[in-house]
Amino acid sequence: MQKPKSILFIFKRIIVPIRLRPFIIYSVFYFLLLQNCFMNPFFEPILFPKNASDSTGLLSALFAGGSGPLPATPVPGHGGSITATAEGYDSDFQATVDLSWTAAKDDLTPASALTYQVYYSTNASDIYVNTPADLAEVGNPYGSAQAAMTNSSVSGLPANTIYYFNVLVSDTDGNQAIYNGSGIKTSSPDTTQPVPGNNGGLTFTPSSTYSQVTKSSMTLSWVAATDNVTSQANLTYQVFYYSDNSVMGTVNSILTNAISAGSAQAGITQFTVTGLYANAWYYFAVVVTDEAGNAWVYVNNFGGGNASKTQPGAAYMFDSLSSVSGDLGSRSNVNTICSNRKASLSGINYTWKASCNAYAFVSMPDGTWISGYLVPSIPSTYMILGSQGTMIASNPTQLLSGTIQNTIRSAIPEYTSGSGYWTFATATGGYASADSCSSATSNSSSVSGRIGLPDSLNSYWMDFSINGEGAASGATCDTGRTILCICF
To answer: Whole-model pTM?
Structure first.
């Protein structure tokens, strides 16, 4: 006989399942409904819009009061801070302020599409505002809005003025946010000159070689300058020189009157000046300039350039220009002709003139012959050069006994007497007493004198009237001719 079912058994097996059955049925129903909503293409744009402007359906009504799109405001990076740095001041761009900030983030718009607009003002209340609308209304925009911008340089600002800056960031739906305002004082004009290193001292290294193309050279070295604003690498240096120290007294005088050896170069501490005359004194200065245009000079004592003499040694020949008719009078008189001519030469074009004394290149009966008076006084290591540095003879011995290297006409461009010049000398520089125009003091047309020809390259270049060449046409002492001068 089967036992009757207990009450507990009936509750667990029959009653409870009957009560749970509706709950289970309802749960399955709602699950299928929601799954259809989430997966159905019709409901997807309502529940999960791709743009905030599409949020006009159910969720919009529930969470936005049915009043429009959901807000999606960009979030400024790094707490909205802006870094402002005052840069230098110059006459072209005036004062400049560099701004930088961290890119913003947005829930829908990618970072590359977020745009930024810089605003500035001298009034803090225009920049330290609470809403984007306030900033756009009272701030001054700088430039145009740009996408993915995280820095900007604001230029053209007055010096020594406090400016305030802010940045407005916008997404593609027009939602906006502002960064935190930042204020800074613009730079003042830089009026401080650079400070030359080593108290402005210069080191000179003259070249011992000589070329008719580059002539002599001088290498200048110095210690780099410093400046209160411009970095050492951006300081520029320009070398100047002149034969007269009178123009080396101020920066303006040097820039206006001295000869520039080349253009200004940044960061250099050495420069070689070429094309200098040998055996000549030059005054040098190095002008250092900062980015604001302030300049100062390297000289041992400001108010004068550094003097240095070029190498190697040289004597220079030039044309007297003025003519004489044989009546020389005395060595002193004819030397004066050459001294006056030297004094008239340009100190720029004939730099060597400040380093030598001028003598007439003639032989006189008083014993002041070319061979016995002038040439022995010239150091044996000296070159003999024309007025523009062209080689005539490599040394005094060659000048007398050997063939000269270039003609007088090519070595002395200003040469004026095409028919010859007075020498009153034999080919070796002695005094030509046989036809000396009565000791070179007579104007008698019957007396001949010794002359030299400007285009002769042989060893008789000073004596045209011997050795079978015949007397020069018109070589009478009453004919006006120039004389050559030599400076050593």
So the answer is: 0.63
